[in-house]
Write a structure and sequence with these properties.
The protein has 640 residues and is of the alpha/beta class. The protein folds into three domains: 217 residues, Up-down Bundle (Rhopdopsin 7-helix transmembrane proteins), CATH 1.20.1070; 144 residues, Reverse transcriptase/Diguanylate cyclase domain (Alpha-Beta Plaits); 246 residues, Alpha-Beta Barrel (TIM Barrel), CATH 3.20.20. The protein is 58% helix and 16% strand. The chain has 24 helices and 19 strands. Helix 23 links the parallel strand 17 and strand 18. Helix 9 packs across helix 10. The protein is elongated.
Length: 640
């Protein structure tokens, strides 16, 4: 049977070698869990090699001293229990990785230490007593009365594992549950074969089988891992939340959201950009041993940490913020990555994983738009979240029931002394009949992906209004567009189709876009504007002067008109510098062949100053507020 024993051990060795090679190719930061599993593989390999050495030496006859065979076999017996205990400890660690209460894992370590110590004493006592094995005068190997006691130790370790599993079942991952269902029956079959056939050695195969099951359970499951960073992805994060909450764990989630990361990709290319992301993930995994790191969405990361009090929670955030103040290095590339942070504490039993994800997504959107570097989810943010949810539900309901209203604000032309154009503005009421500001519901509509539907609804309403009032003495009506429309590759064809459907001349409609919108994808925006301009459609640049404005953008696009933001009208009254700034802008745009509309004129003084500067048109409450279609018709009849 010697040859068969060697064959089984060689097979086990090959399996372990394959696992080690695959683990080496597994692109993920070297976490504590990975290091533990790698140690299990190395100990298993060492145990099998020792077993093979024992087999060879025992058949060396008188050429091998008896003391050498006793030593090598003693080491093998000791390594066998070390191997099983290291695997058991790894199973404990993986089973309890979603449990912050360390009581169970500490007890498991103590009990495993006691078992290993007891077996070590038995191996030492075996040398004179021959309880495990003994060698006769010829050097032949004989089994002792306690030869199979090692299986008893393995059985005890399995009992401890299942006791721990029963206590923390709700926090155990589905991968671990699958492993715990698979390992015991396979081990029982192999142990039974071993006991029935004393001449066959299957200890190495047993270890290899368990190691393979653990690898398949925890390392071949790529569905919940991010391919770039190696840490968990959004699906993995959701699973983590579900297990923490099911186990009634108290924890903290920190979001780290890099800003302008696209600049790194532009500067170095996406490969180096990915290396920066990998470096960030690796640092998080290494620095926060007690945490689980995830690539949350896009280039943002989420850390799940145990919560032991507000002081420690704030310390975690500060450590993270301090690290991001320092540059990140990839070879010769060194970059400071501007990052904003938000965190949420989960200590309430009534929170579900879906609601936590909603809270986090809300914080993510707020943090991206905020000027603050750090935001904590408190009662005020919770109130804002539920307000946002209400508005989102109202927006969806308004689309289903066609409750959006289109109002119009007249625009005055001083040179013609009359109202020459209108801006179409969408309006929405809540369930109580109170208006929701477009500044509130439009960004929410963008986030939930329905702003495109609102755009087409507005176009239909405007075209219907124009057909109904063909004799209306108005030159143009302007309609606001967003980047969602530009993302549609069939935009030009769709626009042409709706104009033909209503038989409306392109001369009657102007489209307004903002420079913030253009900055999201300048290449696509320029291409789309050019295509539509070639078809006879004209654009206004809206909100010029609110932070993104630059003349390079204005010169690259075919804008018929520039709309000065109301903030510039306010600056105009602050002193000579503000007055000269606005007057200079108007003159500059005129020299570039563009007309100027000044928004936000609310007083006679503001209107008079803008007229004196040469503004082509003025839009604001001083002349007219936005109004529904029926009120507009009455207004225009009175004014004209």
């Amino acid at each position: 049977m010697t040859e068969w024993s060697l064959v089984t051990e060689v097979i086990a060795l090959l399996l372990l070698e394959i696992l080690l090679m695959n683990l080496a190719a597994y692109k993920t930061p070297a976490t504590h869990s990975i290091r533990m599993y790698r140690n299990c593989l190395f100990i298993s390999v060492g145990t099998i090699l020792c077993d093979m050495l024992c087999i060879v030496l025992l058949h060396g006859g008188f050429l091998v001293p008896k003391a050498v065979n006793i030593l090598t076999n003693s080491v093998y017996f000791w390594l066998t229990v070390i191997m099983s205990s290291s695997i058991a400890l790894y199973i404990f660690e993986k089973m309890l990785e979603h449990v912050y209460d360390r009581y169970c894992i500490v007890r498991a370590r103590v009990l495993l230490t006691i078992l290993v110590s007891a077996y070590t004493m038995l191996v030492i006592i075996n040398v004179p007593a021959g309880l495990l094995f003994w060698l006769d005068g010829k050097g032949d190997y004989h089994r002792g009365p306690l030869n199979t006691v090692g299986y008893g130790f393995v059985f005890i370790e399995m009992i401890l594992v299942f006791i721990c599993f029963a206590r923390h079942r709700s926090s155990v991952s589905k991968e671990m549950k699958h492993a715990l269902k698979t390992i015991p029956p396979l081990l029982a079959i192999l142990v039974a074969i071993q006991l029935l056939n004393q001449g066959l050695l299957l200890n190495g195969i047993m270890a290899a089988v368990v190691d393979v099951i653990l690898y398949v359970s925890f390392f071949s499951q790529r569905r919940e891992s991010d391919s770039v960073t190696g840490v968990g992805n959004r699906d993995g994060f959701f699973s983590e939340l579900a297990l923490r909450i099911a186990g009634k764990q108290q924890f903290q989630v920190i979001l780290a959201i890099p800003r302008d990361f696209g600049l790194i990709n532009q500067r170095y290319g996406h490969q180096i950009g990915n290396e920066f992301l990998y470096s960030i993930a690796a640092w998080m995994e290494e620095h926060y041993k007690e945490a689980a790191a995830f690539r949350y969405i896009g280039v943002s990361f989420a850390l799940v940490l145990p919560y032991s009090g507000r002081e420690q929670a704030e310390k975690y955030v500060k450590e993270l913020m301090d690290r991001f103040q320092e540059p990140w290095k990839i070879g010769p590339c060194e970059e400071s990555i501007t990052t904003v942070f938000s965190d949420l504490i989960c200590i309430e039993d009534d929170l579900g994983e879906n609601q936590v994800m909603e809270f986090l997504d809300y914080m993510l959107s707020l943090t991206k738009r905020s000027t603050q570097q750090y935001m904590h989810f408190d009662d005020a943010l919770a109130e804002g979240f539920f307000r946002r949810r209400m508005v989102a539900q109202t927006v969806r309901g308004a689309l289903r029931e066609q409750l959006f209203e289109v109002w119009y604000q007249p625009v005055y032309a001083p040179g013609k002394k009359k109202y020459v154009s209108l801006e179409a503005l969408v309006r929405l009421k809540d369930r109580n009949g109170c208006f929701i500001s477009p500044a509130e519901f439009i960004p929410i509509a963008e986030e939930i992906g329905v702003v495109n539907e609102i755009f087409w609804l507005v176009i239909e309403e405007v075209f219907g209004f124009l057909k109904e009032h063909e004799d209306l003495d108005i030159e143009t009506i302007s309609i606001n567009m967003s980047m969602e429309q530009f993302d549609n590759p069939q935009l030009c064809q769709s626009i042409e189709a709706i104009f033909k459907k209503w038989m409306i001349s392109p001369e009657k409609i102007r489209f307004e876009i903002t420079e913030r919108m253009i900055s999201e994808d300048a290449v696509k925006a320029k291409e789309t504007v050019q295509q539509m301009a070639d078809l006879g459609f004209w654009f206004y640049l809206d909100d010029f002067g609110i932070g993104y404005s630059n003349f390079a953008t204005v010169s690259q696009f075919r804008f018929e008109c520039i709309k000065l933001d109301r903030s510039l009208v306010d600056v105009m009254e602050e002193g000579p510098k503000g007055f000269d700034l606005v007057r200079g802008l108007i003159q500059l745009f005129h020299n570039m062949g563009m007309q100027v509309v000044a928004e936000g004129a609310e007083t006679y003084r503001q209107a008079d100053m803008l007229i004196g500067m040469g503004a082509d048109r003025i839009q604001g409450f001083y002349y007219a507020r936005p109004m529904p279609a029926d009120k507009l018709i009455e207004f225009l009849k009175r004014e004209q």
